[in-house]
Design goal:
By secondary structure, this protein is an alpha+beta fold. The protein has helices at residues 10-69, 119-122, and strands at 125-131, 136-142, 155-157, 168-173, 194-199, 202-215, 242-250, 257-265.
């Protein structure tokens, strides 16, 4: 009787291992594609959809303000408005600059006091900022809270800073990217460009004078009553006056530094 010698088929084992490896790689590829699609959708939502929503809401707020004003902004006497408070209680979220170093230099002047009242009132827009060079028309609200103000596509006034047209520094913050990105192109502003602020029955025109392309988020001097960088002392002003300050993040899609644009109030007729 012949002995039966078992035959070992090595090729079949290799094919099984190869098939298993292919399955693992395929599953990994599917997972990578799925994660990529999810990330892409999140980016589209953040960069595109939030912009559409915020821009639409901001435009409607501007229209609502102009309807409430009744006339062309800046024309005629100022009708009575709610009392204004130079010490708003709205607590901003972590922001580009602390408001502690800036205060209104003329608290007794109505134009120097930001809008007040309940938080819902403070979060509503009370003015419109127009920048002809950029084709920008955007509402201005009290405070720089992200959810309540900035993420709506509004520009927010730093608490404690001077109001439009007043002595001191009317300091504003706005997103550069996403949520309406009203300040995306403020880096294109040049000396002599106009920054127009409309309120009920009043119009204030500022003229861009100086810019600071980059400073730290702790450079509180740029929103002081006499704005001057404490990080780069060569930038800013040294004399009291009526100023406007625009601040936003830089470089684009980053919040590492701050970009600053300053202007001075053009004397009225």
């Amino acid at each position: 009787m012949r002995d039966h010698i078992p035959v070992v088929v090595q090729g079949r084992g290799r094919r099984a291992r190869r098939a298993g490896l292919v399955g693992v790689l395929w599953a990994a590829a599917e997972l990578t594609v799925t994660v990529g699609v999810v990330v892409l959708l999140l980016v589209v939502h953040q960069v595109w959809w939030t912009n559409r929503q915020a821009v639409a809401a901001a435009r409607e707020e501007v229209r609502a303000l102009e309807r409430a004003w009744g006339d062309d902004p800046g024309s005629g006497p100022s009708p009575s408005e709610p009392p204004l408070d130079s010490r708003p209680s709205l607590s901003p979220s972590p922001s580009p600059f602390s408001s502690a170093s800036a205060s209104s230099s003329s608290p007794s002047s109505p134009a120097a006091r930001p809008a007040a009242g309940p938080s819902a009132v403070r979060e509503r827009a009370y003015a419109v900022l127009r920048i002809p060079r950029l084709g920008l028309v955007v509402p201005v609200a009290q405070g720089i809270d992200k959810r309540a103000v900035l993420d709506k596509g509004y520009v927010g006034q730093y608490p404690g800073t001077a109001g439009p047209g007043a002595q001191g520094n009317f300091a504003l913050a706005g997103h550069r990217n996403t949520h309406g990105e009203p300040f995306r192109y403020v880096n294109r502003l040049r000396a002599g460009d106009e920054l127009i602020v409309d309120m009920r029955g009043r119009r204030y025109t500022y003229v861009v004078g100086r810019t600071l392309s980059e400073t730290t988020e702790r450079d509180t001097g740029v929103i002081a009553p006499v704005p001057r960088s404490v990080v780069k002392p060569g930038y800013g002003y040294s004399e009291p006056g009526a100023y406007i300050t625009l601040t936003t993040c830089t470089p684009e899609y980053s919040s590492k530094y701050r970009l600053v644009v300053w202007g001075t109030l053009r004397p009225g007729p």
